[in-house]
Amino acid sequence: MAQVIFISGTPTVGKTTISEKIADDLNANLIKINDLAIENGFVLGIEEEKGYKVIDIDKLDDKLQEVLNSFSDDELVIVEGHLSHLCSNPDCVIILRAHPKLLKERLASRNYSQAKINENLEAEALGVCAVEAFELHGDKVNEVDVTDLAIDEIADVIKNIISGKNSYPVGNVDFMDWIVENS
């Protein structure tokens, strides 16, 4: 199977932008996990209060594994999206993190509901994606604070992770100060 890299994180951390850049820079295949879920009818419904899609993760993971098996051993595949870290068999998982103060501006600019904004800010401050990923994938997970980095800097960090030059273990990013300031 190909080398498989999951890039995940809270909405608006920059997953799509950086995944597209990495795929382009490294001539990698890019799978957008949300598109895969929608195209294959894995949306179970819409959560009413916050307005997000509820996805059948088991069926999504089965389909992803089927797609990944179609790649040759020498290919690199980037799997991008908020749900990617909940799937199986990555070689590496990269969780992008950004300070909740920055995310608040980005989420508001996308006209997210206040309930959805609050949920995402709390999830980011608590590192929910990183914890979920670590519970499933252990030491394969890297956690990168992208708050003050330009796209090219983030791309360099991720390329170094993919090549094995650097690692950023879960627990090195801490936004708990934001919770204290906002409680």
UniProtKB/TrEMBL annotation:
Assigned keywords, A-Z: ATP-binding, Kinase, Nucleotide-binding, Ribosome biogenesis, rRNA processing, Transferase
Residue stretches in coiled coil? none
Q: Which family does it belong to?
A: Belongs to the adenylate kinase family. AK6 subfamily.
Gene3D superfamilies, alphabetically? P-loop containing nucleotide triphosphate hydrolases (3.40.50.300)
Q: Which is a GO BP term held by this UniProt record? A: ribosomal small subunit biogenesis
Its Enzyme Commission number(s) read 2.7.4.3
The record's function comment reads:
Broad-specificity nucleoside monophosphate (NMP) kinase that catalyzes the reversible transfer of the terminal phosphate group between nucleoside triphosphates and monophosphates. Has also ATPase activity. Involved in the late maturation steps of the 30S ribosomal particles, specifically 16S rRNA maturation. While NMP activity is not required for ribosome maturation, ATPase activity is. Associates transiently with small ribosomal subunit protein uS11. ATP hydrolysis breaks the interaction with uS11.
Q: What class of enzyme is it?
A: transferase
Write out the GO MF terms. AMP kinase activity; ATP binding; ATP hydrolysis activity
Q: How does it assemble?
A: Interacts with uS11. Not a structural component of 40S pre-ribosomes, but transiently interacts with them by binding to uS11.
Q: State where ATP binds.
A: 14-17, 110
Q: What is the catalytic activity of this protein?
A: AMP + ATP = 2 ADP; ATP + H2O = ADP + phosphate + H(+)
Its name, as the record gives it, is Putative adenylate kinase
Region LID, as annotated, extends over 109-119
